[in-house]
Amino acid sequence: MKALSSRQKLIVRAAILLALALLLGTLPLWAGDYWTRIWTGVAMWTGLALSWNIIGGYAGYISFGQVAFFGVGAYTTALLMQPSHHWNFFLTLPVGAAAAGLLALIVGWPSLRLRGAYFAIATWALAEALAQLAGVFGFTGGSFGISTPANPSTSFFYYIMLIAAAITYAVAWGLLERSRFGLEVKAVRDHQTAAQSLGINTTLVKQQALLLSAVIPAVFGGIDAYWITFINPQSVLAGDITDQMVVMALVGGLGTIWGPALGAIALYLVNTWFNATFGSTTGYIAMVGGLVAIVVLFLPDGIIGLLPQTRRLRLVRQLLYRSGRSLRPERGTPQTGGERP
Amino acid sequence: MHLLIQTIVNGLLVGGLYVTISVGFSLAFGVLDVIDFAVGEWVMLGAFVGVASQSWFGIDPIAFLPVVFVSFTLLGWLVAPLIYRVRTSHYARPALMALAFTFGIATLARGSMLTGVGFDPRTVNTGIVSGTLVVGGIQMPWLRLASFIFAVVATGLFIAFLFFTRRGLAVRATAQSKQYAGLMGVDIKRVSAFAYAIYTGLTAMAGVLICAIYSITAQHGPRYTLLAFFVVVLAGLGSVGGVLVAGLFLGVLQAIVTVYVGADYTLAVVFGVLFGVLLVSPRGLLRRGLAP
Question: How far apart are CA B113 and CA B111, in angstroms?
């Protein structure tokens, strides 16, 4: 194929983006209620998977408690929209995001200075503890849950989710792929000591990445609470939600912007098909687990790694791996490319 | 006062099982350099093998323990090379990928069991140990006492193996430094698989006993994973001595919270303590673990 000039590339990209926007923007008009609802779900999960990818793929810290931020957002919106408070729906979203951000600061403070395993444990314990507490506290309605006011039409939620997902992707792309912050995050992930020697405040960078990845699910959680009109710990604080984010980001491609979107579309549709065909979600959990294991073993770069342009990325990583080995002091661990496990 | 002593005794008796689980878990981390997210699932799977032995074959689950040990050792021996492969691969972030891999295995196990047996809690009844021992007004059900004795013996044998045999020496050397152990002629891959296999076997046996004392559902795996983490973080990663103290401490803490605060608050308290320890002393309470 003849190489395109940068100007031509820009035009092709703009055309694809425009076509996509047109397709998604008019979807409720021609797709019908059922498919509009499914694509609302897809939009939500693309955002959630991306949020996980920011801390997991870009910063290199696996969060097994991402659902905690989602749940905090959902509960905040639901509580503030109760008849006694009667907040406007859109005003509740920033409050939920702020609450989730605060939570992220608290949990990240001790655990982000340590190795990834500690962070994984801390986030997970946080999510489990929150789910248990939401089930006993009075103001969250206990295990019975709380309901939100009756809501507008299906297409309203479709557009809200779509806009939220679009903003999420635009912000994440700008911050992670087109700014100094993105380079810093990747530098810290790939070689913490080297990044530190360049004057990067590694803990601060990781904390910022976590903050970004916590705020996003809170917003989607808020929208979700209003959409499904009834939330309880099982529906918005279940560990399965985190599992789903992990598998979507992994299958799509860790540390890429578009990977989570691909993964979310593929897996959400499979999930819907699974539920419609077998009528239960437990088989899907097993499939998610098997898929994670298989992807890790055979396709570590995800679907997006199959695309031709990303070969270069792989090469860079392998080079990094080699130089990382010679740079790295022996720490009694298997040889790895300069990273902190 | 009587209630407090009773609670502490109850906690200590169960804490023994946590020690058994966590010693293996800590060691598997040492040799494979991967936190095994499937630890709770080995507990759950072991418990369900116990349930199956009782309902399908009518064999007492306590008598079935050796079979559970052998079969799960075999299973662990098959899984370990996969984890090893991911951990030592040329991926960009092998430690992260290995963590995700064990998480995948855990989710696979949980989903399969939920599909297979559903959400109902199961328990096993054993006829070998029954009744209650009463000492000075403190009640000790023989089942819990037997579990505790089992935990002490199993953990003791395991530690004796680690410190008094040549193969145990190889395992400890591998946990300390893969490179130097390899230079001394230790087959790292085989030693890792071996240690992981023993750990899964021990954990599954503990699972059968936990199932006999409490009850278990296919969803309970993550709970025990969290508890095992708690013990290991409190002990400091890689510290065997710390695990003995931290496991018993967890048992007591859990019992006290259940009696005086409410069972629904256990995870919140566990998280609170975990958070505090990570903040103040990330190398464990005794400060004997590896640098985090």
Answer: 6
Query: Between chains, do B111 and A135 touch, taking CB under 8 Å as contact?
Result: no
Q: Which residues contact A188 (CB under 8 A, 6 or more apart)?
A: A59, A60, A195, A200, A202, A205, A206
The domain limits of chain B are 23-219
Is A318 part of a structural domain of the chain? no
| pTM across the whole model | 0.86
pLDDT of residue B288: 60
Task: For residue range B107-160, list pLDDT tens digits in order.
Answer: 999 999 998 888 888 888 877 777 788 877 788 888 888 889 988 998 899 889
**CATH number of domain containing A101:** 1.10.3470
- Please report the residues numbered 133 through 172 in chain B whose beta carbons come closer than 8 angstroms to any beta carbon of chain A: none
pLDDT for res A308: 67
Residue A333 lies in a domain: no
- Give the number of other Cβ atoms within 10 Å of residue A149's Cβ: 12
Give a yes or no: residue A289 inside a domain: yes
- What's the domain count of chain A? 1
Rounded distance between C-alpha atoms, residue A258 and residue A269, angstroms: 17
| Residue A300 contacts B, CB cutoff 8 Å | yes
The chain A residue lying nearest B95, using CA atoms, is A341
Residue of chain B with shortest Cα separation from A60: B96
Domain membership flag for residue A254: yes
Q: Contacts of residue B82 in chain A, CB cutoff 8 Å?
A: 293, 297
pLDDT tens-digit profile of A272-307? Answer: 888 888 777 788 888 888 988 988 888 877 888 777
